[in-house]
């Protein structure tokens, strides 16, 4: 039974598995034109050493001697970058390693076995693709497995891979660990923004969480395709773990794409659209994209932490205080429906919510 809240997210037009397509391409000329994106190599990419993604030490955020200093760093990271690397986050290595190993195993299964967990019609949960809304739209070079992990009653366990055998346990454990990290970060973010903690905890009550596992196959025309089109995340806070050592995440910074080089064991955190709106634009939901490697597959796991579906999302009164509200107020249910009904297209949806 698919939980009704998932069906309300909308659906995506069925397109072939990119993993299977990639495996069948003998010659670069055979990459179908629907995947070829001139902008992939046209847009400028920042070179090494131009600037550095902020690194936030979670253990210092919690330490009575260092928390103030580290919280200030966190504030600047959220305001200036919208992205940061999170180290010493306390998620046990074991929880991360088991999750990674099971994801790699899942994607090695034959297509038919993966399809046992495919998205059902009119739903976005499960194995497949999202954001395909028209038959002539360009396509991303990626497959994904999207699962609602929290609150518990929203889980559609039938769509959670039963192979490898440990997958469900690994994901439950990973989800719980990440939820705790996100909850602490959200508390500190509320504090940094000068919001009463209850206000944030009501909006993010029960810590709704969805996990998207991204699988990016190699492509012989790697610099002409995109893994994920430029987008912002429709979440409050996203925590991303790169599963293998292949890099590919780019974030928009001062008009060019800035390649992220994850530190070993770090989580890449980013502010999503919801916190940008709640903070009246003080914190930024920054555009990002992923690129493809010519020889190696890339995998990542994004944990999205969002508000309760029935919450109203608009700039918070304590932040606006006499100045202008920059965004409309919208229920999260409506927001997320709009998010999934259009293709990934930079900041287009966010711009449409601006006053
Ligand atoms: C996402 C995302 C980046 C990555 O899933 O929203 O931006 O590195 N992923 O896979
Ligand atoms: Ni993203």
The kinds of small molecule bound in this structure are: N-oxalylglycine, nickel (II) ion
- Catalogue the unreliable spans: 1-7
CATH topology: Jelly Rolls
Mean pLDDT across all amino acids: 93
CATH class: Mainly Beta
CATH architecture: Sandwich
Number of strands: 14
Describe the structure.
Residues 207-307 form the Fe2OG dioxygenase domain. GO terms for molecular function: metal ion binding; oxidoreductase activity. InterPro entries: DIOX_N, IPNS-like_FE2OG_OXY, IPNS-like_sf, Oxoglu/Fe-dep_dioxygenase_dom, Plant_2OG-oxidoreductases. This is Fe2OG dioxygenase domain-containing protein. Belongs to the iron/ascorbate-dependent oxidoreductase family. The structure is a single chain. This protein has 355 residues and is of the alpha+beta class. It has a single domain (4-352), classed as Sandwich (Jelly Rolls), CATH 2.60.120. The protein is 32% helix and 19% strand. The chain is built from 13 helices and 14 strands. It has helices at residues 4-7, 18-24, 39-42, 58-61, 67-81, 93-108, 111-115, 167-193, 197-203, 273-278, 317-320, 332-341, 348-352, and strands spanning 55-57, 83-87, 126-128, 143-150, 209-216, 228-231, 237-242, 249-253, 256-259, 267-271, 288-290, 298-305, 312-313, 330-331. The strands form three sheets. It has an eight-stranded mixed beta sheet. The chain has a four-stranded antiparallel beta sheet with strand order 6-11-8-9, with no helix packed on it. Helix 5 packs across helix 8 (167-193), helix 6 (93-108) packs across helix 8 (167-193) and helix 8 (167-193) runs antiparallel to helix 9. The chain is globular. The protein starts with a helix and ends with a helix. Residues 1-7 have low confidence and may be disordered. N-oxalylglycine binds next to strand 5, strand 11 and strand 12.
